[in-house]
Amino acid sequence: FSQMLSFEAVSISLNLLMITIVALYADFLKWRINQVVIRIGLWAMFVLFFINTVGNLFSINELEKLIFTPVTLVLSLFSLRLAITKGKSANRTIH
User: Cβ atoms within 10 A of the Cβ of 86, count?
Assistant: First the structure.
């Protein structure tokens, strides 16, 4: 039980960190954070989601393979899109 609690605490912390990185990138949070740090965070998110996608592809659990492989693939592609975007103004071109 203790090990599972630790695992879930790490998982929740990582999710909160990722939400914070995206909120900083989108200027929802007005904290003064170096853009290089945010860009590194976005690349780290891409790598994490991509590795998770590969892991899901090799899962022995068919439900995990069927549901979570496409979800993590989409998340990795979205993270990649943010990581390679040159500037914040690039994501504000939609009217």
Answer: 6
Between the CA atoms of 42, 16, 73 and 5, what dihedral angle is there, to the nearest 10 degrees?
A: 130
**H or E segment to which residue 59 belongs:** none
Neighbours of 25 (CB within 10 A): 20
Residues 6+ away with beta carbon under 8 Å from 73: 49, 53
Q: Using alpha carbons only, how large is the chain's radius of gyration in Å? A: 15
d(CA 83, CA 66): 27
N residues, the chain: 95
Residue position matching structure tokens 């090799």:
58
Q: Which residue has the higher pLDDT, 1 or 55?
A: 55
User: What pLDDT shows up at residue 2?
Assistant: 85
For residue 86, what pLDDT is reported? 75
For the chain, the distance separating the N- and C-terminal CA atoms, rounded to the nearest angstrom, is 49
